[in-house]
Amino acid sequence: MIAPPAPSLSMLRLFLLLTLVLTALRAENQIEFFATRLDSNQSVVHASGDVLVLYKSYYLSANEAYFDRNSSTLELFGNIVAMQGSDYFAMGDYAKLDVATKSREFSPFFMLDRHTNVWMSSSRSGAEDKDFTVEKGMVSGCDPNDPFWVLYFSSADFDSESRWMNVYNAYLKIYGIPVFYFPYFGYSLDNRRRSGLLVPSFGVSSTEGFFVEQPVYIAIDPSWDVELRPQIRTERGEGLYGKFRFVDSNVSKGSLNAGYFQEKSSYVDTYDLANSNHYGFDFFYTNTAVLQRWLGLDLHGQSGLYADIKWMNDIDYINLSSNDTVNYATSNQVLSRVNLFYNEENAYYGMNLRYYLDLNKKSNADTPQNLPILRYHRYIDTFLDEHVYYTFNLRGNNIFRETGMRAVEGEVDLPVTLQTSALEDYLLLSYSARLNGKYITFGNEPTSVSAITTGGMYETGLFGRIYHVFDAGTQVTKAFDGFSHTAGLDLAYTKAGVDDAAGYYETQQSLCTGSDAALYPECDFYAVNEIEEALDLKFSQFFVNDEGEQVLYHRISQRFSFDRYQDQLSELENELDWQLTPELSLYSDVFYNYDYHRVSKTLNGIRYSDDAFNVGVTDLYEDQPDANGTSRVNYLTFDAVYRYNDHYRYFGRYAYDLETNTKKLSEIGFDYTKRCWKFGMRYVENNRPILTNAQTDSVLEKYVYFTVELRPIGGTEVNYKLSDVLDGS
Q1: Which of 225, 271, 336, 547 could form a disulfide with 309 if both were Cys (CB 3.0 to 4.6 A apart)?
Q2: pTM for the structure as a whole
Q3: Alpha carbon 520 to chain centroid distance?
């Protein structure tokens, strides 16, 4: 083979000479030609041989080009490649550009969006300014040489500025097989928020029938959007859930979730449900300068508002919010909170509202609520050359409930600490005198009292206390080759002082300080802990490597009681957090009870994580004495993810109650991901709670989920519910 001759210097000069910059057009419409041959007269420019045309952000190459100066029309022929900036890439055999009207023609047409790798092909396309129109073409995000899926259409239009595409009379083919027809289909080629349909979900259940949910997203204004999720369960009922999100300033934002579901009477009767409809809401709001913005106050400190308010008539409001209850699992105890605070250099002012909702109960009228709690905290201050420290806390609490006794209580707390050091600052010594006072008064009428009552059970109460804490501690650090070791020892001796009680605190003391105090409604408001003479011993150590990463943390603590009415040794706690290798970590927290000669609580976990595996096992065990003997909890969880390669990912979860021999949750599945599509399948068993006329029960659900996603046009999730069985039935 004879190599083609290298371009000579004369040819290069010729190329440069043939480079022409057309200046007949205005500067903003300037067109530049580069070619190996160029002919020009007063009306037409003809370029041939490796033609390159630069026009605004367009880069055009072809075998041949003509430019008509009179009509401002540019025509390109043969092997055309067109690029617009870094966004689009197009190919064809003929192209026509009208510089005056900015209209364009391309045939045949092939365009690639470099951001999403979506390509479009047709016999002909036209464009004016930012708008493209295409006739009888196809679009896909897959490899053009062997596409997994292709969407064929009779016509389409594309806005290159908004990056939104509409296709009409379209049908989807997967590996050449038609699977779906769309009269119209519109989708976005970027992540900008805009109104439209979101990914739908479908499912089939042996008890709930066919399930379908089609979310609708509405984004009209930059400061808010709405997502509506109507759903139908053909054998159970219909419902609508929605979410409203908003940003009302540069320091605040919020959201409101709400939903309603109406059950069919046949389903209610079958499962003996307590309610035939389920509804609720969840409001969330944060503002990091609420007093300055809402009241216009000129404050130098920081104010804030945090609100998380939840309410629902029963737990099925959450269970029905999605077809995937695993992702919406919740506790039967729901807490709503509103925190308002102002924080300055020396003090903190706060107001907290707490509303507790027990979903195990049909009514929460007798549940005590904190509406509100008022707080004042004086930050630590010093005097006497920083040897004396003190803080001050003031707290007021309105305990409200619809039925039963209510109370208003106040509390003051004043710890004063004298601190010094010894042994060249190796030993830190301190003494604290802690003063505490309480006041409580009651209202409303009791709905019940225990069999054991004492006189003046709800009299206004006063309580005062002073006790003492002596503390000695040391901490030393030594550097080694590759790591440093820090160890600390702390001893705190608590000496009970003087208690003085009157009214409620005096009359209920003996009843409410016993181990079975929780059984007596009179003790609902008795929040006084006994101060015992005791010594708390704590040893801690940690190792840190040269990268500043903690390798090991270890803490062991023990309380020795000198109160003759208390156990001499309280529970021994040993906590360990150890990063054995960069991939393997271990955590353990163990409590040992001397009276029962056994471990009373453990939380143990081990996890391995690298580029391919992420596997963890956790066990929570608790064996605590209560009024009925012992209360045991033994809960085991396991999770694993294995990434086989860039395409396959396998995963699984398992949760089991070892005490009741009940499986709480299991899940296993896999994902297969490629450039233009993703397919996933998982099998799930979930034991979820429900509220029936017999109070609480649970339902064991078994699902098979299929996830199909055609990138970037979207996808769906389909599930099949195998069974739906009441636990224990």
Answers
A1: 336
A2: 0.74
A3: 40
